């Protein structure tokens, strides 16, 4: 056992030493690259000029990548050719022609983006209906008149909040495919908010929870964000929330009022 322990310690020491050497090598390479970059410019003006070109390239590349995401592929080499031709004073387009081409591009980008958003919204509606139908069949699931589905994961014994109360909760929000778009757990602290300033599904659902409870809510789009389309939540999405009600902030005020 002792020999095994010694070998383990030796292996750990070697691994640590190798790791340190690799890290030192990376730092050295970074420093060498920085020194090489400094030496590549004759003066500060050249460095600034290069920085302008690099910044322009980053901006153009980001735009081309965004357009590629909606199915519009523009040749980077042709973009570069346009920059070079203008610098040479040999542009193949007049100012009017270039403006017309950009306006046409903007219209195409808008049309493609709208079509993509429409397709995502239609898919979200179908996925949401299927998910809600399956969730509703699970044991213990209840549905309110508004269409909100919920399941009691654990029931607390505290007070229930009203719509005018401010509550403290831990929660996780996902799409029906399990993609997480928000989580107070990941942020490391609970969220505090007035119940009348959140989506209708939350306003209604959290009022069903005694303090100390954990519920799962399945919120149809009309009780969530409806046809609003965001980067993380497509339009018409059904949302799934795991919610833990920790505290009602207004409880102290109620107690004071009752004592008075």
TrEMBL record:
It comes from Salinivibrio sharmensis. It comes from the Bacteria. Transmembrane segments: none annotated. Its EC number is 5.2.1.8. GO terms for molecular function: isomerase activity. Residues 20-47, 95-122 form a coiled coil. Keywords: Coiled coil, Isomerase, Rotamase, Signal. This is Peptidyl-prolyl cis-trans isomerase. NCBIfam families: PRK10902.1 (NF008150). Residues 164-249 form the PPIase FKBP-type domain. Belongs to the FKBP-type PPIase family. It catalyses: [protein]-peptidylproline (omega=180) = [protein]-peptidylproline (omega=0). Residues 1-17 form the signal peptide. It holds the Pfam family FKBP_C. PROSITE patterns: FKBP_PPIASE, PROKAR_LIPOPROTEIN.
């Amino acid at each position: 056992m002792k020999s095994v322990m010694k070998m383990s310690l030796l292996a750990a020491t070697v691994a640590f030493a190798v790791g340190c050497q690799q890290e030192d090598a990376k730092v050295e390479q970074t420093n060498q690259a920085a020194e090489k970059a400094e030496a590549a410019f004759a003066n500060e003006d050249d460095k600034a000029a290069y920085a302008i070109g690099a910044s322009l390239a980053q901006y153009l590349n980001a735009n081309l990548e965004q357009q590629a995401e909606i199915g519009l592929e523009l040749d980077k080499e042709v973009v570069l050719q346009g920059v070079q031709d203008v610098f040479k004073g040999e542009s193949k387009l007049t100012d009017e022609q270039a403006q017309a081409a950009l306006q046409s591009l903007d219209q195409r980008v808008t049309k493609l983006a709208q079509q993509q958003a429409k397709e995502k919204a239609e898919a979200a509606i179908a996925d949401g209906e299927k998910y809600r139908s399956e969730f509703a069949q699970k044991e213990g699931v209840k549905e309110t008149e508004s269409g909100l589905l919920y399941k009691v994961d654990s029931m607390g014994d505290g007070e229930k909040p009203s719509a005018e109360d401010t509550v403290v909760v831990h929660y996780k929000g996902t799409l029906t495919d399990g993609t997480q778009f928000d989580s107070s757990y990941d942020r490391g602290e609970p969220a505090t908010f007035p119940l009348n300033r959140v989506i209708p599904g939350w306003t209604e659902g959290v009022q069903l929870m005694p303090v100390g409870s954990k519920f799962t809510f399945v919120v149809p789009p009309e009780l969530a964000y409806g046809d609003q389309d965001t980067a993380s939540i497509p339009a018409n999405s059904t949302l799934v929330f795991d919610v833990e009600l920790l505290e009602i902030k207004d409880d102290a005020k109620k107690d004071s009022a009752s004592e008075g």
